[in-house]
Design a protein that fits this description.
Distance between the termini: 25 Å
Helix content: 25-40%
Number of domains: 1
Number of helices: 11
CATH class: Alpha Beta
Shape: globular
Radius of gyration: 19 Å
Largest sheet: 7 strands, mixed
CATH superfamily: Vaccinia Virus protein VP39
Structural class: alpha/beta
């Protein structure tokens, strides 16, 4: 499933941890995106649940009540390194198992799961239609598919605008966004609902934002600039010691 950029970005948890940390440290919405996503899950007793692209597993921390409603929760990722980190993060739970898996070829029979989750990863899938067909195939009748993503007017659009005079253009992966996601999902699901998460970053240390920028794959032109230049530009956009960055995140719930 992964191309070179995705492999670089997700082969180990370090880069992902850098990106997660800036949100936990500077987000203005203190509910937290992961908590907000989980608040939309409708898990009933005995459900079989599959998560695709679980990453470090941090979104399940503190969600024991949700986990314990599941008869089975399979956390999967294309990266063995991510799964090892997820195991460390969550520890032992007889209801939870971990499996290397590609959304484009889910190794389970038709109508296996009551819910499938794929947060912040569908834009990486080379053959998204194939992946969505697989999700629909393994969902039971009446089952739900939860998929969070970003919009096209959020952090990267703002950051690239700051560096426009250096020839930096927004080349964010737009395969699956809040703007086009509904159209991508509708051929496979009877109901597609979109929910938006209200949030922004209020960054008080430009070094943290620079770390975030340098953790991203696919921004080679920006990362080619000296770190001192990146810091100077970021600091020049701070007002009263705060760098304000819009965020555009949300999710789709499909049935």
């Amino acid at each position: 499933m992964c191309d070179a950029i995705v492999k670089t970005q997700y082969s180990t948890p370090d880069r992902l941890a850098t990106r997660i940390s800036i949100h936990s440290k500077y987000s203005t919405n203190k509910q937290g995106f992961g908590n907000w996503i989980a608040s939309h899950y409708r898990m009933e007793e005995g459900m079989r649940v599959l998560e695709l692209g679980c990453g470090t597993g941090e979104m399940w921390l503190g969600k024991e009540e949700l986990i314990n409603r599941c008869s089975t929760l399979i956390l999967s990722d294309v990266s063995e390194g991510m799964l090892e980190k997820a195991k460390e993060t969550l520890g032992e739970n007889q209801r939870v198992s971990f499996q290397v898996m590609d959304i484009q070829s889910i190794p389970y029979p038709d109508q296996t799961f009551d819910a499938v989750i794929a947060n912040m990863m569908l834009y990486h899938v080379p053959d998204l239609d194939r992946g969505l067909r697989e999700v629909r195939r393994v969902l039971k009748p009446g089952g739900a598919f939860y998929c969070a993503t970003y919009g096209e007017n959020g952090m990267m659009a703002c950051v690239c605008e700051m560096f426009r005079t250096y020839g930096i253009e927004d080349q964010t992966n737009k395969r699956f966004t809040l703007q086009n996601g509904e159209a991508r999902l509708k051929p496979y699901f009877d109901s597609v609902r979109r929910f938006l998460y209200d949030d922004a970053l209020a960054v008080t240390d430009a070094n943290d934002m620079a770390d975030y920028i340098f953790s991203l794959a696919g921004l080679s032109a920006l990362q080619a600039l000296p770190r001192e230049t990146v810091l100077h530009v970021l600091q020049s956009h701070m007002q009263d010691g705060v760098l304000r960055i819009p965020k555009e995140y949300g999710m789709f719930i499909c049935q």
